[in-house]
Amino acid sequence: MAGIPTSIDKTLTALTAEDYVCGRDLGTVVFLALKLGKPLFLEGEAGVGKTEIAKAVSAALGRRLIRLQCYEGLDAASAIYEWNFAAQMIAIRTAEASGGADRDALKAELFSQDYLIRRPLLQAMEPHAEGPPVLLIDEVDRTDEPFEAFLLEALSDFQVTIPEIGTVSAVEPPIVILTSNRTREVHDALKRRCLYHWVDYPNFEREVEILHARVPDSAATLTREIVAFVQGLRGEDLFKNPGVAETIDWARCLIALDAVALSPDVVSDTLGALLKYQDDISRIAGSEAMRILNQARSQLAQVS
Predict the structure, then answer these.
(1) Per-residue model confidence as pLDDT tens digits over 221-244
(2) Predicted TM-score of the model (pTM)
(3) Buried b / exposed e across 97-123, counting CB within 10 Å, b at 16+?
(4) What is the DSSP string of the chain?
(5) Which is it for strands 116-118 and 81-83: parallel, antiparallel or unpaired?
């Protein structure tokens, strides 16, 4: 288990060791969140690496990563715990079959730790041998306002309540990272509990660094062509711009096809790795792909 980094530079080094390449601004807010024990709220377009930050921090510190994937209709109980109803029914049938079951004793047994299924928030509050875990509350913008209100209390006191058992408080608060794709505005009250950072698309050089780290088999020339083309795509009027995750996926696809350079045919054949909407693919395939590719090569020639 690694300790909390003692400086911004050491934070950046720890993240880089886990193949997460980022700028000093993001490294600074991660360092401050760890040092101050504050939740970190990361907002940005899908695919820019928000979730990967939590994974990198977890791996760098040697802590368990606990992920709460948010969705519409998620409520507090589903995020904290549930009872193992199947096992409880078996215990009830067994007690009835044996006869003379003590109702109070049976009730106490049914609502004990043995039948409790721990969901992410409860898991994060419990002690862990390796130290407080990293709790990733992913895509919090998909939930509704009542769940946000519950999170306010949970993140303020770092405790949750199970009516049948009582209140569970974290001996050591977990490292909390929340992400949002900004499909809706998250309430200011929740953001105020956190350190905030907008995770943007990387510039050309940083995206090249990321690709070198994540797809080391990609030749330097091909890597630069890939990044130049993807960044050109982001300047188009698309329904959904490709994120860094799509850049990495596309590079891996091209390596699997033994591509050594981009060509109009290869680009058109593999656009599904970059673009996830048919309207976008139809718009870019063919002559538009050729135009963006030529533009990317022209920019690379000017840089070199």
Answers:
(1) 999 999 999 999 999 989 999 999
(2) 0.89
(3) eeeeeeeeebeebbbeeebbebbbbbb
(4) -PPPPSSHHHHHHHHHHTT----HHHHHHHHHHHHHT--EEEE-STTSSHHHHHHHHHHHHT--EEEEE--TT--HHHHHEEE-HHHHHHHHHHHHHH----HHHHHHHHTSGGGEEE-HHHHHHS--TTSSPEEEEETGGGS-HHHHHHHHHHHHH-EEEETTTEEEE-SS--EEEEEE--SSPPPHHHHHTSEEEE-PPP-HHHHHHHHHHH-TTS-HHHHHHHHHHHHHHTTS--SS---HHHHHHHHHHHHHTT-SS--HHHHHHTGGGT--SHHHHHHHTTHHHHHHHHHHHHHHHHH-
(5) antiparallel
What gap in Å lies between CA 21 and CA 202, rounded to an integer? 10
The residue whose two tokens read 């096992």 is: 87
Domain coordinates in residue numbering, the chain: 8-73+120-198, 81-114, 204-303
Average pLDDT of the chain to the nearest whole number: 91
Tell me the per-residue pLDDT of 47-101, one tens digit each, with 9 for 90 and over.
999 999 999 999 999 999 999 999 999 988 889 999 989 988 988 888 777 775 6
Answer for the pair 123, 66: CB distance below 8 angstroms, yes or no.
yes
Residues in a beta bridge with 177: 40, 136
Hey, what CATH class is 8-73+120-198 in?
Answer: alpha beta
pLDDT digits (tens, 9 = 90+) for 167-216: 888 889 999 999 999 989 998 889 999 999 999 999 999 999 999 999 99
User: Which burial class, exposed, middle or buried, applies to 163 when counting CB atoms under 10 A from its CB (0-12, 13-18, 19+)?
Assistant: exposed
Does the pLDDT value for residue 107 go beyond 80?
A: no
The yes-or-no verdict on residue 1 having pLDDT over 60 is no
Residues 161-176 pLDDT 10s: 888 888 888 889 999 9
The two tokens of residue 56 are 């990198």
